[in-house]
């Protein structure tokens, strides 16, 4: 007797505090993740996470106050999941979406409980990180596998992992679309008058020695976007959101903005190249903090390409990625 297939699309993301009371425990969870924050002695992890979350949360809470009192990441991720399920249904693929956050609710453990309760027997694990990193995709996948395998009755769930999609044609098309939307808001239409900054989340440089492909993936994304845009224009790849004292990927975005200001650049279009949703890094770091940096540097026009959120072309890209994975699995079976 055949069992009806019940497909789940699990969307993985980092998570974020939904209100100011969440900020401190969120920071604790963030600094407790061994793949997100590397330490020389593991015994230091929990005491250090407690110390940082205790003494940093007031400052971090101030940032969240400036974007409405909390991160919209969970809401947006849920909306992306709903839109993806709707798009897949139009293609004849019945699925249910689940949001799994690494450092805040809904935690992976809760998601797996829901998978069991709902009778799911096939999962497509889709990280909302286009470029693979130890600190994002690997951390999420490892924890998901660990929790799933610890629940013996769930080992029969068929799992299909999508580690990266940094070069998917429809993802590149959607990124180009957001850039072209932003270009239309600039007063000077001359392409040479606007400096494109592709701002990606930074990672520690020592990750590269461990085979971390994040930098390679990010550079390829930028290369493909520039090819799609066509006409040559000035651009820079930079990095933001550095944490801790170790050396991270550079140049840092704020340093690039200051340098361009000294060179007389008057228009900057900044592209959040590794982010697919609005959250603290776009709404505060790019829109508020770096806008202030640009103002101080004498840059007259500083705008950001919009995050994807539920942009139809982006949802279509995610649907293609899922459908292609399912077709590949089906082809291997035949």
Written description of the protein model:
It is a single chain. The chain is α/β, with parallel strands linked by helices and 334 residues long. It folds into two domains: 7-165 and 313-333, Rossmann fold; 169-304, Rossmann fold, CATH 3.40.50.1400. Helices cover 47% and strands 14% of the residues. It has ten helices and eight strands. The chain has a four-stranded parallel sheet with strand order 2-1-3-4, with helices on both faces. Strands 6-5-7-8 form a four-stranded parallel sheet, with helices on both faces. Strand 5 (194-201), helix 7 (214-229) and strand 6 form a beta-alpha-beta unit. Helix 3 packs across helix 10 and helix 6 (169-183) runs antiparallel to helix 10 (312-333). The chain is globular, with a radius of gyration of 20 Å. The two termini are 20 Å apart. The model has no long low-confidence stretch (mean pLDDT 94).
Task: Give the overall shape, derived from the CA principal axes.
Answer: globular
CATH architecture classification name of the largest domain: 3-Layer(aba) Sandwich
Tally the beta strands.
8
Major beta sheet, strand line-up: 2-1-3-4
Measured by DSSP, the beta-strand proportion falls in 5-15%
CATH class placement of the largest domain: Alpha Beta
Spans where pLDDT lies below 50 across 5 or more residues: none
The helix/strand series, from N terminus to C terminus, equals EHHHEHEHEHEHEHEHEH
Total discrete domains = 2
What is the residue-averaged pLDDT? 94
CATH topology group of the largest domain: Rossmann fold
């Amino acid at each position: 007797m055949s069992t009806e297939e019940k497909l789940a699309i699990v969307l993985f993301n980092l998570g974020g505090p939904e209100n100011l009371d969440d900020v401190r425990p969120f920071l604790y969870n963030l600094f407790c993740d061994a793949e997100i924050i590397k330490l020389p002695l593991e015994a230091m992890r929990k005491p250090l996470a407690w110390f940082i979350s205790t003494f940093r949360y007031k400052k971090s809470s101030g940032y969240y106050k400036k974007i409405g009192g909390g991160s919209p990441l969970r809401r947006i991720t849920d909306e992306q999941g709903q839109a993806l399920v709707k798009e897949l249904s139009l293609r004849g693929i019945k699925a249910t979406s689940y949001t799994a956050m690494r450092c805040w609710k809904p935690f992976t453990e809760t998601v797996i409980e829901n998978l069991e309760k709902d009778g799911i027997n096939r999962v497509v694990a889709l990280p909302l990180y286009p470029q693979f990193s130890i600190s994002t995709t690997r951390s999420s996948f490892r924890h998901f596998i660990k929790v799933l395998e610890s629940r013996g009755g769930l080992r029969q769930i068929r799992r299909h992992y999508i580690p990266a999609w940094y070069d998917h044609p429809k993802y590149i098309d959607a990124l180009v679309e957001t850039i072209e939307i932003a270009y239309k808001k600039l007063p000077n239409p001359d392409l040479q008058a606007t400096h494109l900054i592709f701002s990606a989340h930074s990672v520690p440089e020592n990750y590269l020695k461990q085979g971390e492909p994040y930098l390679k993936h990010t550079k390829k994304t930028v290369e493909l976007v520039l090819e799609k845009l066509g006409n040559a224009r000035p651009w820079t790849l930079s990095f933001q959101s550095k944490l801790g004292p170790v050396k991270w990927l550079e140049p840092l975005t704020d340093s690039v903005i200051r340098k361009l200001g000294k060179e007389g650049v008057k228009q900057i279009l900044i592209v959040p190249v590794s982010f697919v949703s609005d959250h603290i890094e776009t709404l505060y770091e790019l829109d508020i903090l770096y806008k202030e940096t640009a103002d101080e540097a004498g840059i007259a026009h500083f705008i950001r390409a919009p995050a994807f959120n539920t942009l139809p072309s982006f949802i279509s890209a995610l649907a293609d990625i899922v459908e292609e994975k399912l077709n590949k699995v089906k082809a291997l079976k035949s």
